[in-house]
Amino acid sequence: MTDNNSQGVSNSLPLEALAQYPLPGMAFPDWLAFSPDDRWITYLYSPQLNLERRLLAFDPQTNEVRQLAGFLAEQAGEGEMTVEEALRRERQRQRELGVTQYSWAMHANRLLVPMQSKLYIQDPSDEKPRLILDTPETPLQDPQISPDGAWVAFVQGGELYVSSCDNGMPLQTTGGAQPPGKTNGLAEYLAQEEMDRSHGFWWSPDSHWLAFEEVDETHIPIYRILHLGEDQVGEGAQEDHHYPFAGKENVRVRLGVVSRQGGAPVWMDLGPETDIYLARVDWLPDGGLAAQILNREQTRLDLVRLDPLSGKRQVLLSECSPLWINLHDLFRPLKSGGFIWASERSGYRHLYLYGVQGELVRPLTQGEWVVEDVVGVDEPNQQVYFTASGLTPLESHLYRVSFSGGEPQRLTYEPGIHRVVCDHACRRFVDTCHSIQHPARVELRSLKDGAQ
Description:
Blueprint: E1 3-4, E2 30-34, E3 41-45, E4 52-59, E5 64-68, H1 83-91, E6 97-98, E7 103-104, E8 111-115, E9 118-122, E10 130-134, E11 141-145, E12 151-156, E13 159-164, E14 171-172, E15 182-184, H2 189-194, E16 201-203, E17 209-216, E18 222-226, E19 238-242, E20 252-259, E21 266-267, E22 276-283, E23 289-295, E24 300-306, E25 313-320, E26 332-333, E27 339-343, E28 350-354, E29 360-363, E30 371-378, E31 383-388, E32 397-402, E33 405-410, E34 417-422, E35 428-434, E36 441-446
Parallel strand pairs: 4-6
Antiparallel strand pairs: 1-36, 2-3, 3-4, 4-5, 7-8, 8-9, 9-10, 11-12, 12-13, 13-14, 15-17, 16-17, 17-20, 18-19, 20-21, 22-23, 23-24, 24-25, 26-27, 27-28, 28-29, 30-31, 31-32, 32-33, 34-35, 35-36
């Protein structure tokens, strides 16, 4: 799969090109993902090189490109958006229209394509997507498909719901919300805007349980935002939000676990401090739960293991800094019980291997350079694939390192910035590379030696 987009490559550009979006040379395939069986590569792309995205699927065996959810691309216009959808897009810095998001089930070749108040399901072999839910009166928020592909969960009216992907009415699984001041399953403003966490609930690997965040901001004063230049006054020209100003009270959060059939939740022990940030939540391969808890000063980050049945916690590690802690998404739990973790304790962000009880086994990388992302973990072969600045901060390349440490092996050599998506078997990767000399090129390559 190769896309040599040469738009805008010249010694000079017209002034109008500098003000357009996408920028010249930047309309390339994005949101790349391998299907669970690694047969298909799906991505969002605009054939017209404008803001209207379409969902496409590429079959590397036949070089076939299929458009999925084709008729949905014209259904999402900017003027039709709900307030909730507009705020989500604003916080994710998303300008595109058409199909702007999708997700694979973890263990099933099934796609979820949300379109505001509608949810569609499609398999790559299907001709058309199938509408499974349409609630125009109350918008759906943060829909997520279960790992087995049989269920979809979402937030509506401040509560968490679960619906079958095949039949059945949505079932409310949480209770007690009082929107807009108290919600279940939604990430709060600070999480979305400042901590890069957009989800407020998480499916368990076996698709039976949901971890969810309860957010209480009823004690925070209302702040009104006026939309200047509107032709009307009142509700359509203003927004009211519980806004946590610097130095004032933050929202209060709890983390609960509930069955997908509903019932009383089990509340997790997040520690004695209540003025905290719930930075990250992950399910572990053995059915346990992991959470990253940041103090108000952002100088201490605890990675804790939580028992979903009792709520009891175990601190696996703590990161401390006299200045602040930078959050990341480089925690990778292993089936063996240990985990891979990234830390800036040396002054540079590097990878470390930890054991079951949170004991440090060994550093995996070190040096005066920065690990940027973990793109694949091949646990059977004891290897980690990651991108890093390497020799120069002006470039980013793909590397491989063994669980036993040692010198990382570089797998990309073309000068520029490489953004990588690995398949599940760690055999191939999609490489999106761009530099000052050329616009983005998208290539399918081998992880064995980096060959195209």
